[in-house]
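Subject: Sanity check before I submit

Could someone independently write out the structure tokens for this chain? I want to compare against mine line by line before I put it in a report. The sequence has 726 residues.
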Amino acid sequence: MRQQEKSEPLTSRITVPVIIGAALSLALVVAFGVYAVLRVDGLAIERQRNFARSGIAEQVDGLAREQRSVTLWNDSVLKAKAGDQQWMRENLGEWLHSYYGQDRVYVLDERNRPVHAMRDGMTVDPASFGGEAGAIMPLVARLRTQMRGRPAEPGVTDLVRLGSVPAIVSVQPIMPDTELVRQEAGTEYVHVASQIVDAELVGRVAAHYLIEGARLTSIDPQTTASVPLVNSGNATLGFLTWKPDRPGLAVVTQTAPALLAGVVFAGALLSFILRRLRRASRELQSSEEDARYLAFHDTLTELPNRALFEDRLGQALATVKRGRGRMALLCVDLDRFKHVNDTLGHDAGDQLVKQVAQRLGEGVREIDTVARVGGDEFAIVLVDIRDQRTAEKVSERILADLGEPFDVKGDQIFISASIGIALSPEDGIDVRELFRKADIALYAAKRSGRSCFRIFADGMDDMLKHKHRIERDLRQALEGDRPVELAYQPVFAIDGLTLLGAEATLDWDHFAHGGLPVSQLIAIAEERGVIGLLTGRMLAAACAFARDSEVPWLSIALSPVFLRQEGAAQLVQSVLAEAGVTPDRLQVEIGEGLLLDGNPAALAAVRALREAGVRIALDDFGTGPSSLTLLRLHRVDKLKIDRSFVRLLGGTDPGEAIVRAIAQLATALGIRVAAEGVETPEQRTTLAALGCQEIQGSLLSPPMPAAQFARMVRHRPALQTVRSAG
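---
Independent answer below. Compare away.
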């Protein structure tokens, strides 16, 4: 009896949602069906509207085309100016009615006076033009104005109201079709042809486009199955309306019996399923406790999962809110756990996680909570602690316990962990806020070299917010349409006069923080995964500048992270191709660290760029541990002496000897030598004596905006003269 009482609520909890779900599903199907019918019918009506517009447009174009068959004719020019009424009746008037069905024709002389008129197939007194001149003469005036520009096919066509009915009117000059007849500009006669928009014309449009029940009305029918007749002056002359085609409604009408049968069948099926669910719910009741346990515990370690942990954390914080003690949240992350999975397999990784969970549980009190909240992430709630030192002691004990070797499949494994600590009430009494600050402290611990713990401090939050703000603004700037701004520092020959090229660097002026160091921006872009997008925009800006200026070449430093990405070399080449810049006008600067790292993808990208014609410069040469070996293994086009060596020139430090050795080595290998950071005339003189070929620095020119550098490039001869004179 007790079992039955327990199972009935579960049955209700299953049955009611199923019924509600079925009802909602039926409602959604009906709603979608109605929407689909309305959508299909709407599209059909819009298609008919387009057909109607096209039909009227074809009638307008057809009238002008028919008219042109008689207005472009030597005989028409001669006979009209001769006043041959018989010829005009047979060729310019009644013939157009009998052959094409045109309703009215007028011939006007060079002063726009009527000399011939035809209405409904009968030649009439030209003076009858006066009754319709008010509607037609504006078109004649437009034609006369158009003729002054001598267009290839002059003519004006529009919808006008002739009396009380709308009509299509086409006005064209009567002109010779060969050079045998010459006609002075401004003496052309004008031929006016009109077609009344009546039931016959509407019928032709409807028959061609299969529009049922088409008719013309002067009153807006207030229906979507209509189009207005609007002339070039935006005046509405009438409306073409019809019986709308509704294929969606027709399909619903035809399929209604089948749909009704489907609803009945679905109802029967739902009843059958509900009966089966009642039986299944009784069986599920016996395993409800197990399901509840699995819902709140990690299956591998049997520790509480994130859901249960957050509940217990909330309970601990509620106690703190009532002023009863303090607590600490510890976020524990295993260092380099991925290496264990990659080298020993996931089974070994699972065993290691289970042993870590056991040690963590043994390292805290029974009233504390240890939970697994991620693959190699754990969290601990320490309740009712005395002070901060208590959390520190627990963290020290955890680090020591995890520092002991683990026995996994007969092998000893050594790992370490990083711990971030947030205290309550000092750091907050909200679950998410405390988690966030513990994560920030964990991030600080990992940045400090791992295998340590850090306690949250306000400075950590400010630093991370600052970094995230810059990252967000940088991403928005890159995803927008505004181009990346670059600064250009000229590179001169050793004489300090000849401009050889320039180094392009990112010049992003943040609206809140002002100019930010390039190294900081590049590091953020690398860390947040937007270095490819940033590099592409920088390359595009540099190549666009090179294309639009006469600077011999531009140099740009490429991040090792970018060069390790798939398709890095292809991106550089595609940007060059799109800008129309030859590869020899681009110089790519790489650091010794990239070569020392030996990443195959990055080295392949460098080789591909050099083979394509891009020059490779080794930046900051001499600061790495294996410079000579690098030059033997990797081909480069230029060595850039680091500014730290240039700064030592002229002092007691052996910097001069180092620069001389670099220059001699480069000369022996056929590699050009450049020096950066040249600030004094003495440094330039010394570098010239030591064999350096290129220099850049504040002595010659600081980095400058693109517009300023472009002016410098344009006035380069004048610049050299000024310097020579100085």
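---
OP: Matches mine. For the report I'm noting this point. Residues 62 and 260 are 51 Å apart (CA to CA).
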